[in-house]
Write a structure and sequence with these properties.
The chain has 2 domains: 179 residues, NAD(P)-binding Rossmann-like Domain (Rossmann fold, 3-Layer(aba) Sandwich); 185 residues, Rossmann fold (3-Layer(aba) Sandwich). 35% of the residues lie in helices and 18% in strands. β7 and β8 form a beta hairpin. α6 packs parallel to α7 and α6 runs antiparallel to α11. By secondary structure, it is of the alpha/beta class. The strands form 4 sheets. The chain has an 8-stranded mixed β-sheet, with helices on both faces. It is built from 13 helices and 19 strands. It binds nicotinamide-adenine-dinucleotide. Nicotinamide-adenine-dinucleotide binds next to α6 and α7. The site of nicotinamide-adenine-dinucleotide has 32 residues, from α6 and α7.
């Protein structure tokens, strides 16, 4: 069986598997073909892949010969068409939000797996690329803010006077938010955090941050630990509370998302205008509508001296460890579908079925089925 690894598009510095992960894969009695220069942006040379036991090939050969094609970003339809009919496509295909591609895969009777669909269950935790990449984004967002801020993060007592610690407000205390809290605390900032889920409060406090309470949030125990949409009345109350905290903050990092929906708007224009000049907002939800009214995806906007950075794929800014984590998640998933050096797709397994976009001309993941029926 041949497993192919393609070079990602120009704006994607990560690679699906680094050489160390390739070495593990090869010990499972499979061949790994890597596109030339696939790992160069993550500082993994073709030589290192060869030392790990991989073969270096041209893209066209990999597309045509692979039994399993591993990537991060989705490849284009004309490239999918070049794969052999039984070839399985795997990546972060964003299948729920890309109906065109999903319909194409179903119509062409392709077998495809989309890593963002990995169920968020305890057993699947080691395969959860969303958590891994959110860890990278939360960490990097704080470093980016610290770099832009015209002040120190920690408190300093120096001969030139004392410096008070910066005040950081984190909105959304999920995986990215908790990592942002931990990173900002390590840098010595005074951290406040807010989430609609009461379960997040304990985690926020355990990281040494203060929890901003806004009573009256709607929670749904059936939502798998995720947030649900809030009432207009609650959202207004929340915006007012955030407004009060934002005026005292030096940095705001927003991470609030609701799966399958537009991100909630938490920071209004009046709030940005009320903030101290020099403050920085990093909006990690910019690509799904933004938590800040003024943020623009992949752009930095400045209003009254407040810089609002709308970040998209922040994980690609730290390609080495992001690829390492991605590869580990992949290996843990591949353990479920590779037996004795061959593909063995057991759709009775909830993780295999939950991650599968389509097989044999039919959608498999229940949310994909629902999306295509609507
Ligand atoms: P996410 O990226 O969907 O959202 C980020 C955070 O934003 C969440 O904590 C959410 O509650 C919060 N949020 C949403 N709307 C908000 C609003 N109006 N105001 C303030 N905050 C708001 O979520 P995530 O970080 O991927 O994960 C959230 C939760 O999912 C985790 O804390 C955990 O309970 C669960 N989870 C489980 C697993 C697993 O078991 N494998 C893995 C990852 C996450």
């Amino acid at each position: 069986m041949i497993i192919g690894i393609l070079k990602e598009p120009i704006d994607e510095a990560r690679v699906a598997l680094l050489p160390e992960a390739v070495k593990t894969l090869i010990s499972w009695k499979v061949s790994v073909w890597v596109e030339n220069n696939a790992g160069s942006s993550a500082y993994a040379s073709d030589e290192l892949y060869k030392e790990a036991g991989a073969e270096i090939h041209q893209r066209a050969e990999i597309l045509q010969q692979s039994d399993l094609l591993l990537g991060i970003q989705a490849i284009a339809e004309d490239e999918i068409a070049k794969m052999k009919p039984s070839g399985v496509l795997m990546g972060q295909l964003n299948a729920l939000f890309n109906p065109e591609l999903t319909n194409y895969l179903v119509k062409e009777k392709r077998t495809a797996f989309s890593m963002e669909l990995v169920p968020r269950t305890t057993r699947a935790q080691a395969m959860d690329v969303l958590s891994s990449m959110a860890t990278v984004s939360g960490y990097k967002a704080v470093l980016m803010a610290a770099d832009l801020l015209p002040r120190f993060f920690p408190m300093f007592m120096t001969a030139a006077g004392s410096i008070t610690p910066s005040r950081v407000l984190i909105l959304g205390a999920g995986v990215a938010g908790l990592q942002a809290i931990a990173t900002a605390r390590r840098l010595g900032a005074s951290v406040f955090a807010f989430d609609v889920r009461q379960a997040a409060k304990e985690e926020v406090l355990s990281l040494g941050a203060k929890f901003v309470d806004v009573e009256g949030a709607t929670e749904d125990k059936g939502a798998g630990g995720y947030a649900v949409e809030q009432s207009a009345e609650y959202l207004q109350k929340q915006k007012d509370t955030i407004h009060e905290h934002a005026m005292k903050a030096d940095v705001i990092i927003t991470t609030a998302q609701i799966p399958g929906r537009k991100a909630p708007q938490l920071v209004e224009e009046r709030t940005v205008r009320a903030m101290k000049p020099g403050s920085v907002i990093i909006d990690l939800a910019a690509s799904s509508g933004g938590n800040c009214a003024l943020s623009q995806p992949d752009q930095t906007v400045e209003v009254n001296g407040v810089r609002i950075v709308g970040v998209g794929n922040l994980a690609a800014n730290m390609p080495q460890d992001a690829s390492k984590m991605y590869g580990k998640n992949y290996l843990n998933f591949l353990k479920l579908i590779i037996k004795d050096g061959n593909l063995n797709l057991n759709f009775e397994d909830d993780i295999v079925a939950g991650t599968c976009v389509c097989h044999d001309g039919k959608p498999v993941n229940s949310r994909i089925v629902q999306m295509l029926n609507n």
